[in-house]
Amino acid sequence: MKDNDIDRKLDIALILMSKSRFDRGLSYAEFVLDADPNNKTALEVSGFCKAMLAEYESAVGVLNRRLRLHGPDAKTYIYLSLIYSRLGDTSRASAYFRMASENAPDMSIPWYFMGRAYSADGDIELARDCFEKAISIDPKNGNYWSSLGVMYKEAGDNETAERCYKRAIKLSSENAMAYYNLGNLYIDIGEYEKAEDNMRIVVGIAPGRYDAWNNLGTVLMLQRKFDEAKMAFIRALKIYPEYGHGYYNLACLWSRLRNAKRAVAALGIAIKLEPHRKALALRDQDFDNLRRDELFIELMK
User: How many other CB atoms sit within 10 Å of the CB of residue 127?
Assistant: First the structure.
């Protein structure tokens, strides 16, 4: 595997992990490890994804391998702390959190990664508490503010979330994740022009973010900018060919353009990659144009 292929697969693995797609994130990390068994980032992603999938013994083995090969690391210690916390071993969990604190040059880092772990585990309140603790130690870290914003958005407080994202951007104008999160918020509340502006900034800063290209395509489609939307979806799928959501949105676009054949073809790929998309398509108004189409009817069986 060439270096640029390794970097691309690592980028995809990290994005999938951030979206709690731990099974797919693990697959991409394993691709990298097949070619480069000592890759530090791939070991970290593999260990964390295995932990989230409750493959604790294997996760511990991978994370300990990362420590043996690359030395002490606060993030890895946090992941091990989370595993032992899940296993009910509070002594080891506390010991690893203490090791994370001792090995972090900035004491905010363990709190940040613990917040990310709780977030991935679906515990919004504990995650928010950890991010707020990290911010109290390092209030100028934009990543902390962006992550806190996500927790407020998950809790339904869009106003506070927006303030957090804007604070992150003010601290770092190159914070692609903060722009991405702010763009998603604007999509959710129907402010499509603002959402488009933010997603364009994201793909300018981080052109490999397939999810940002997909969301840019979505907001362009919602504004009836169909040609631009199609190009954005295709760009997302070129980066990540197994992206079921991208094919689903492309199918929505073709349906809106009343091209039933292409819509059904794209939807078929989406369902093959992500079977739950069939249930979504059955109630999605974007496919109302296809309800009497024979190919669509057959696909929905």
Answer: 23
**Domain residue ranges in the chain:** 139-240, 243-301
Collapse the DSSP code of 240 into the 3-class scheme (helix H, G, I; strand E, B; otherwise coil) and give the result.
coil
CA distance 5 to 127: 33
Q: What is the pLDDT of residues 56-67, one digit of tens each?
A: 999 999 999 999
Render the burial of 94-109: b for 16+ CB within 10 Å, e for the rest.
eebbebbeebbeeebb
Instruction: Give the C-alpha separation, 184 to 17, whole Å.
Output: 18
Rounded to 5 degrees, what are φ and ψ at 156?
Answer: 90, 10
The answer to whether 47 and 64 have CB atoms below 8 angstroms apart is no
Q: What pTM did the predictor assign?
A: 0.84
Between the alpha carbon of residue 98 and those of residues 60, 115, 137, 139, 171, the distances in Å are 17, 15, 17, 22, 29
8 A C-beta contact, residue 230 and residue 257: no
CATH hierarchy code of domain 139-240: 1.25.40.10
Q: Where is average pLDDT lowest: 104-108, 252-256, 286-290?
A: 104-108
